[in-house]
């Protein structure tokens, strides 16, 4: 009886897993000609990486069965990097979702190019709790992959060793692979289906950091915005948000995610050298790219 070859066994297993996952993955070419991948989420809907999908023109989609279709961009959620495209994909069953993996677990990133499936093997390099993106979106868990993600794989499926869907493959600013978990995708898809867009919180303030001095100075107050209604004035210095110090624009931006809309918040300010508190109800601003 021939001896088992663990490396050959692993190779056969990964090849089979890629082939199975590839039945749910499409190639996407946006209106500007950039190639990326997408996942068939359910009959008629494809999810892909919002940040890589240039413009709102229809995208060309290559299905696993070889058909080429035009796909309308049905919605974009820049806070979670999820875009939804509509196309006649048929009744393909969705990939089974997986929970969050452990550090050291092996994953496969599966995409599709013009000539067929694409794949990369990656170890889970780091995990963590739910986090807030720079655009204010809630991501249901941190999963960082130990690879630099090729552009054509962005928007593809990240699967675990059982072939279950961990989430959407995206890249951070250094091209390091990240996973947008399935729970986050599902929430964005349902919000886009119900509302057509994902809004962000809006104060109606333009703020400027003060360098080494804590706080952010108000340099513009939108006449019809929530801050104007709350009585903000030019020159006010915002120092706290619900009692927590704020010293950067990013700190404000992270607090103005989709879940913030309609909330009443207490902002600490300095006005004419004296401390004050102002309550403001956060408004909604629909995302406009750029």
Automatic annotation (TrEMBL):
Gene3D superfamilies assigned: 2.30.42.10, 2.40.10.120
Q: Does the keyword tRNA-binding apply?
A: no
Keywords for this protein: Hydrolase, Protease
Q: Which portions of this protein are annotated as coiled-coil regions?
A: none
Picking any one GO biological process from the record gives: proteolysis
**What Pfam families does the database record attribute to this sequence?**
PDZ_2 (PF13180), Trypsin_2 (PF13365)
* Gene Ontology molecular function terms on file: serine-type endopeptidase activity
InterPro entries with a match to the protein in the record: Chloro_Bact_Ser_Proteases, PDZ, PDZ_sf, Peptidase_S1_PA, Peptidase_S1C
Q: Where is the PDZ domain positioned along the sequence? A: 201-273
The entry's protein name is S1-C subfamily serine protease
Recorded source organism is Amaricoccus macauensis
């Amino acid at each position: 009886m021939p001896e088992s070859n663990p490396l050959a066994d692993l190779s056969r297993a990964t090849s089979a897993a890629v082939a199975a996952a590839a039945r749910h993955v499409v190639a996407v070419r946006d209106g500007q000609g950039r190639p990326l991948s997408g996942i068939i989420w359910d009959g008629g809907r494809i999810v892909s990486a919002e940040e890589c999908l240039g413009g709102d023109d229809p995208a060309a989609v290559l299905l696993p069965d070889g058909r080429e279709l035009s796909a309308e961009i049905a919605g974009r959620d820049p806070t979670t990097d999820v875009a939804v495209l509509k196309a006649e994909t048929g009744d393909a069953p969705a990939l089974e979702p997986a929970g969050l993996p452990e550090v050291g677990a092996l994953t496969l990133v599966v995409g599709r190019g013009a000539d067929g499936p694409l794949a990369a093997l990656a170890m889970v390099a780091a995990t963590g709790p739910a986090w807030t993106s720079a655009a204010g979106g809630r991501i249901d868990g941190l999963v960082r992959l130990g690879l630099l993600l090729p552009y054509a794989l962005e928007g593809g499926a990240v699967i675990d060793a059982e072939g279950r869907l961990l989430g959407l493959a995206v890249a951070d600013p250094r091209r390091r692979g990240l996973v947008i978990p399935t729970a986050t995708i599902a929430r964005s898809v349902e919000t886009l289906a119900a509302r057509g867009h994902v809004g962000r919180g809006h104060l109606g303030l333009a703020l400027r950091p003060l360098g080494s001095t804590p706080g952010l100075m108000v340099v513009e107050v939108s006449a019809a915005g929530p801050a104007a209604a709350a009585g903000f004035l030019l020159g006010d210095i915002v120092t706290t948000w619900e009692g927590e110090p704020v010293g950067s624009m990013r700190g404000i931006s992270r607090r103005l995610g989709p879940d913030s809309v309609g909330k009443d918040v207490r902002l600490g300010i300095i006005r004419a050298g004296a401390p004050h508190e102002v309550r403001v109800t956060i408004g909604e601003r629909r995302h406009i790219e750029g």
